[in-house]
Amino acid sequence: MLRGLLLVSSLLLYISTGWSNEMPGASDPATIAAGKRIYLKGILPNGHPLQAERAGGANLEGSAAACVNCHRRSGLGSLEGQIVIPPIIGKYLFSSLEKNVKDLSVPHVYATRVKRSPYTETTVARALREGIDPDGRTLNYLMPHFALDDASVRDLIAYLVNLTNAAVPGVNDEFLHFATIITPDADPAAARAMLEVMRKFIEDKNSFIRGGAKPLVSTSRAIQYRVTRRWSLHVWKLRGDPATWETQLQDKLKAEPVFAVISGLGGKTWAPIHKFCQDEEIPCMFPNVDLPIDRESDIYSMYFSRGVLLDSELIAHDIQAQAATFKPAHVIQVYRHGDIGAAAARALQQQREVAGVTFINRELPAKASARELHKALAAGAHDALVLWLRPDDVQALPAKASGHVYLSGTMAGLEHAPLPAAWRPHTEIAYPVDLPNGRRIRLYYPLGWFKVRHIKLVNERVQTDTYLACGIVSEILNGMLDSFVRDYLLERTEGMLSHRLITGYYPRLSLAIGQRFASKGGYLVHLTQPQGEQVQADTGWVIP
User: Model-level pTM?
Assistant: First the structure.
């Protein structure tokens, strides 16, 4: 009875004064949406850009002043060197440290270890405008002072209260649910090999869970982690035309909610899957895709490499680097209709390094014969060839080669490309991974694990990349403790990826804020023997 009267009194106080000294309750969607625009885009409810000033007189405006730049999309903050950016979700702001570490509904992140009094709406407004915390202390100089009226402050608070407040799909007290996605045109043997790696990785991981996934309690720190969860994998195999894939994925997600997508295998297009994950705000962690989607505003898909897009950049860089001695005026590009080489050929033509070069594109029918391939290669004078071809076409090249040749290593199979002997002295292969000798030591662990788990090596790169993707997600989740927030998974990956020693085919993996391609460079190489797979680098490691 008394508690009810107190709640009513607090509500009346809020109505009469406009401010509350307790954590605000739920708000209407329009208010939350207005706060979201302030937080993510730096746009005020009236449509004007958010204005702020940082210590030293630096002025910020619009997107540059948006809260997301420091506190991230999750609202759970970040760590930059010695600078701790604290979380600002409602559950954290309006509670004390003592309450936060005991409350299982508050994500446990490093920056929560700050002793201070709980915020109120009044002190939040003061912190935003004047940079002063609830106890009267001055906040870090990086915290801007914002020009926000009372209504905008309430909108922003409503959004912060809403952040991480809903149940996370794919997470329960026993399981973390993940999906992996396979397109209909993916190589069936590679798909089976990928799934075997994933299933045995998860089998190993779950075998370490003891006692039926019971809560772990640390009485000395008074921190209670909810549960140690098992992983559950859902295999989403798509069918039919790519135009139907998004609908299929939406149906699968409704039937089987998942926390994230891990790995996966694509063929000629990944665009519908990429769009689905972006629209649904589901992390898609390092799928096996040779034509990823490169759209700066899309944040929910992370890739190991730009694939054939990186091949095009390496080729363009090489053309520019050799401009003094060799810069072709006419280049013929050859690719098959409907394959990823078409997009790679367009990407090459758009590189600024090849300005002034005339490109002649020879698009082969999807089922063109070797004779049609030979005809396309022989037609027209040229200074260089760029071949966006699969191994079967590479093997079917004519016996005689002429001029300078570039070959997509991503499409042709890297050092396994079955290039005829006559072509090898003339051909540079775009090679967007580390050299075989360079990556050998880093492959010891996954290849050793395959051997112990009796996994047959079918497609080394797909299998090791899949193992790497599973390992990265596992390590990031271990560091997240019980903070199962999708955006936080992406943010932690950005922060932690560069510290990994096991990086498989790649000499280094790293992601700055907003980056989505973990390996940035590659080589131009050539095959040194008339037969075999021995390669030699013609360039150093190039980051275009």
Answer: 0.90
